[in-house]
Amino acid sequence: MGIASSVYANRAQAPVPVITLLSDIGLVLPINKAATFLGEIQEGHPKWNGSLDLAIDNKLKRIHTAAEQGEWEKAQQLADSAFAKSNDLALALTAGLILFCRNDYPGATSYLTRAISMQKDNDQARLLLYLIDYLTGQGEESLHRKALMALDWRAPAEFFGYVVQVLTEKIPITTAVNMGDTNLETGMLHYAAGLMLDQKDQPEEAKFHLQKALAKIGGGDQWLYLMALAKLETLLERQVNTHPHLPQQRIRQSDAITAIQTVRKKWAEKMKAYEQLTRLRAGLTQPSAPPAEKQAIVEKIQALDHGNVNLLLQSAYYYAMDEKWAKALTQVTQLLHPNGRESASRLAGGLLEPLLLNRLGRSGEAKNSLKAFQKRIQDPWYRQISACLLDISKEVSLAEKADEQPAYLLTGYTALGLWAEGNSKTKRALRYYKEALGSYRDDRIEYQFAEERIRRIQQTASR
User: Fold this and answer.
1) Dihedral angle at the C-alpha atoms of 274, 122, 445, 223, nearest 10 degrees?
2) How much is the pTM?
3) Who's near 17: CB < 8 A, 6+ residues apart?
């Protein structure tokens, strides 16, 4: 409140210069639209109170453990109690999730709305709110539907928009369930299919897809696991209770118990595998680790995380950082074939393919690949990058557009840099890579690539 009030009252004053590490810059930037922020508080919209809950991990673990064991009421009580004392965003989201799983949609809506009030771009809460609208027959009018469908490759949750398209039957479910780039995405598509078929009163088909979803969902995706598990439990319970003959009812009840027990047993195994994945992924965040070491880590992750095509993009970039251009190209080829939906990874990989061909001296193939890429995609930014690489006179307009978004700045200038390298214009490539680092998007693989290329180019020049 104090920070927001200060920003609002002194908005005409120059900001106070602060010397800070680049990675911490987000912590010292002023609150954007402080007047709006204060107005929302006055209207009763909850906000994070600035207090860190150091016990949050233990609280969340207790809630999830209860839910995973089917103790939904206990999980809800734990979530309600924890949020009443903490007002933490993660607890609001978790409480909303548990209530959603218990089919208490008004209660879930209350918590999830609070979560969005605390974090406007909380797309997980927004997806749950849309699912509530969908399940209560208000999907077409849902305000969250439009927001989710507007997400593109720049948003980590862009896949949620694809899920909405599936639920609105813009994409056939038989096609959609094969369009996941990760186990989470495939699991979510099967979950969406289960919801849709249950709504259409096709319980056996719904059960099939829910079981498929639970088989795909990995240990790190507890929220989706709980949603699919709760829906399967509800469906099985309904099938047991609606059977007219008592003997058959008992058989079905036994089958239902066995099915849920099997799911829980497999989940315990997945959690152990997830712990191993977490340790491996931590190695990829080490700035000092060379590209070859990170590439080796990706290979170990691939052995555990089957079906994650996003790892192919990471692998391609680590090979490219290590100047193993042909191996990088092989990884991209695997990523792009067979064809899939226009995801963030396929857009990045589709652009990387001609860049690598050009770097390998295959300029004719590179231009043909670039033209084909531009023709088959819909995304306007990647189309503009392609047009600029084919006609460098369009660089000015590309630069103007790049200044609008950090993600544009990074992807645009990294592409220009690698294209310039392929054309033997090393000094220009160095300038482009340095421009790319001005995006500060060190969460993206292109940023690591630009950093490594700068280091290697300067190292070569100093010899």
Assistant:
1) 10
2) 0.86
3) none
